Amino acid sequence: MKTLSFNLAFLIIISFLLIFLPPGFTHNIQNTVQYSYFAYQETSVQANLTGSQPHILHIDHYNDNSGTAVVRIGRVNYYDYCSRNYCYEQRLLLRVIKADGSVIQINYDNATEIQDINYCSVTPFAKNSINFYPLFDQYILVTYAHATNTSDPTTYVDRFLRLSTINGIGINPESFKWSQYGYNGNGSFSLLAYDIVSSIQNPTSFQVTVFATLDGGYSLIYANTTSKTFTSNSTLANQFSVDAGIYAIMLGYNQSTTPQSLILYQLTTPNLTFTRLYCSVDFVYIGHSCIAYVTQKQTSQIQNITTTVITTTITPTTAAPTVVPVTTTVTAPPTTITNSENFYVKIRILSTGSVLASDLMFPQNKGSLTNVRTLPYGGYAVINRTYFGRNINYTFELHNESDALVNYNFPIRPLITNFNGAFDILQNNTMFVALNETITSWQILSAQLPSLSPYNGSGSEYGNLHVSGTYPPIGFKSLELNSNYINITYQDSIKFNDGNLRIYQKTNDGNITLRQLINTKSCNFGNGCNASGNVVTLKVLGCAFNVPNARYYIEVDNNFIKSNVYNEPILGIDPDIWIFNTANIQPISKRAGNIQGALRLTNDGIQHFNGLSKEDKDSFFNNLIKELTNLIPTENGRLSTNKHTQMDPNDSSKIIISISISEAKGSDKMTATQIQSNLILLITNKEFTGISTGSTTKFLDETYGYQRHR
Questions:
Q1: Of 213, 454, 594, 629, most Cβ neighbours within 10 A?
Q2: What are the boundaries of the signal sequence (predicted)?
Q3: Where in the chain is the domain with CATH 2.60.40.1220?
Q4: CA distance 303 to 333
């Protein structure tokens, strides 16, 4: 796994960056949610501190199974009683929590670039001006607002930068801008495409979100309530006029124009307000899913009628007294009563924008809207946060995929969180909740939520519920050396799509070597690739699993496989999940002594080599031996070269390099013949092995391989 050296990229709140892209003590009681605590002591002596305690403002995670989360902390600078805003010290403080419990600090103090308007929050539950999004590897995207005049909201503009300024656009309430960036490597990004969506008419409640789709594109999902004035008196026309809807814009990679919006869901019910929109990959079924939070206001009137009865006694002169009632009725203006009904809408869609299903979730309620989160291992968490003084009471319910309430035991109900109520649910089904802080430290409760998938938990060990098993299985300790096949069993019928599977070897010192790459475009039954029913079987090169008692893992792209029914890509397997070991047995092989042979350079390699100085040519030979030693792999000193080149006797335009292989000095080492065999396999299959990734080995001719001198 790569060492994380975290960097920051910045983006304003309206534009979207679209990138292709420890436990402490644990309670293990049956039917009880396991939980533990994580505490971190902040450095007490730092510049620009206000002297107040650090508060967790927000928690977010990387969209993989690494278990890495990012926490933003801040210290209160002052409280604005007029606007009821908490304003924090003008420093961006991020803490990266890795799976092993270590913490990386990121402190950004450029108050000129990130202005003071970004450090005040309206309410604990409101979206702050500063937001961050863990992207991939070591990169974190930070969004914020920038104004030429901080006292004039009309000067607030969109801004993207990576520690430098790039112009943005002004704000139009009936439009928003999307921008798509590509990662160039070495921490740099470039703008690929952008456009402005300006067809949003008369929005009264507008929510928008963006996420990467499994086919390598992106989806912009937005929900909108429209304010309309009817010019027709037709009751039928008014009845079928749409008041609210949820729409999708499906963007391809590097697509420069905005395609037509697709209708996902529409309602003719009046007085609707969208308050939140949450979308993600559908972890249980095929495609993606979105949950919209909706509030409907219902207004009724009660007539205020007061009736007063007055009795009067009439006494005629010739008769007995008579009591006569006199009734007075007073009609006052009616009383208007407004009630709110809250409900959730779940929509399942494919990468094409096709809607698979749209359903209401849970019964309507008259209470406040809570947070509904899709769980990576199936089901939903319904989270409720209510104020309790300066703290928040935090409770959660679990529901399965049929929306049924799941019984579970959790001994702390409610959780008393900090006054921001920060929480997050990681890809490994772990829920982080921020607890009350001390003057110098902050604390998180980590709860491992149960699997609620209809597959009885199968696949959760792979971080992918669509996978039911593999060969070799996770944790296998004795894979036969030079094994030549692997397989993956899925829950549904599948076929090859357009992606890669990579086999890596991971050494004890953390070095990672690519042993083989399998691409579906070059995968067919003739070369050992087969997708039949719900099982994928893949032929593996004999040199891939050639090291005894070695640790390997296999990474699978999201779009390596797709559904046979829906033609939709299926989730892959993240690095460091499908892990196993080869057997600690070295096969007995006959020794043949030292071997002399040669490699040949490609045309690009010849051009590169001839352009080197004498010193650089010497380095080229050294690096070539080093890279080949690591890729085979074998011990240092087993490969050598005299650092001389000569013309290929069969083609005078080609250059060959002599390489010697020395025989093994111990019975537990690869023989020279085995090294020769592995070297031939690696080079002749260059496109699919680590040979293509080396700075010098990439110049080796795969049509020549390694040829032994006669």
A1: 213
A2: 1-26
A3: 460-581
A4: 7
Strand partners, 248: 221, 262
Assigned CATH topology for domain 460-581: Immunoglobulin-like (2.60.40)
- Residue pair 555/571 in contact by the 8 Å Cβ criterion: no
Q: Which long-range contacts (CB under 8 A, 24 or more apart) does 121-130 make?
A: 121/57, 121/85, 121/86, 121/88, 122/83, 122/84, 122/85, 123/84, 124/392, 124/419, 124/420, 124/421, 125/385, 125/421, 127/13, 128/57, 128/58, 129/13, 130/72, 130/92
Give the pairing type, strands 139-143 and 131-134: antiparallel
Residue 249 is which amino acid?
I
**pLDDT the model gives residue 23:** 37
Residue 41: burial class (beta carbons within 10 Å; 0-12, 13-18, 19+): exposed
Nearest Cα residue to 110 out of 92, 94, 123, 126: 92
- Beta strand 494-496 pairing with 103-108: unpaired
Per-residue pLDDT, 22: 39
Confidence of residue 368 (pLDDT cuts 50, 70, 90): low
Number of C-alpha atoms within 13 angstroms, CB side, residue 589? 18
For tokens 């970004």, the residue is 118
CA atoms 449, 450, 455, 458: torsion sign = positive
The number of angstroms, rounded, from the C-alpha of 573 to the middle of its chain's C-alpha atoms is: 13
Strand runs labelled E in 375-464:
380-388, 391-399, 415-417, 423-425, 430-434, 441-448
Which pair of structure tokens corresponds to residue 165? 């300024």
User: Encoding tokens for residue 443?
Assistant: 């604390």
Q: Are strands 85-88 and 120-121 parallel, antiparallel or unpaired?
A: antiparallel
CA distances from 252 to 75, 223, 351, 618 (A): 42, 21, 10, 46
Q: Is the whole-model pTM more than 0.85? A: no
The three-state DSSP-derived secondary structure of 214-272 is: CCCCEEEEEEEEECCCCCCCCHHHHHCCCCEEEEEEEECCCCCCCCCCEEEEEECCCCE
Q: Which pair of structure tokens corresponds to residue 126?
A: 């409101």
Q: Which residues pair with 449 in a beta bridge?
A: none
pLDDT in tens, 566-605: 999 999 999 999 999 999 876 666 787 899 999 999 999 9
The span from the CA of 141 to the CA of 161, in Å, is 10
- pLDDT, tens digit, 9 for 90 and up, residues 93-137: 999 999 999 999 998 877 667 888 788 875 555 556 788 888 877
Q: Does 43 or 551 have the greater pLDDT score?
A: 551
Cis preceding-peptide flag for 633 (omega within 30 of 0):
yes
For 281, 346, 405, the CA distances from 402, given in Å and listed in that order, are 18, 12, 9
- In sign, the C-alpha dihedral spanning 128, 105, 424, 25 is negative
CATH number of 595-708: 3.30.70
Question: Which run of H or E residues covers position 681?
Answer: helix 672-684
All CATH 3.30.70 domain ranges of the chain, comma separated, are 595-708
Q: Give me Rg for the CA atoms of the chain.
A: 33
User: Is residue 242 a contact partner of residue 226, using CB atoms and an 8 Å limit?
Assistant: yes
Both structure tokens of 574: 């993240």
Q: Residue 238's pLDDT band (boundaries 50, 70, 90)? A: very low
- Cα 129 to Cα 156: distance, rounded to the nearest angstrom: 11
The first and second tokens of residue 48, run together, are: 């620009």
Model pLDDT for residues 315-325, shown as the tens digit of each residue: 555 555 655 56
- How far from the centroid of its chain's Cα atoms is residue 521's Cα? 26
* Distance between CA atoms of residues 227 and 137, nearest Å: 44
Contact 679, 542 (CB under 8 A): no
SS (H, E, C) 624-642: HHHHHHHHCCCCCCCEECC
Per the structure block, which two tokens stand in for 146? 């920038």
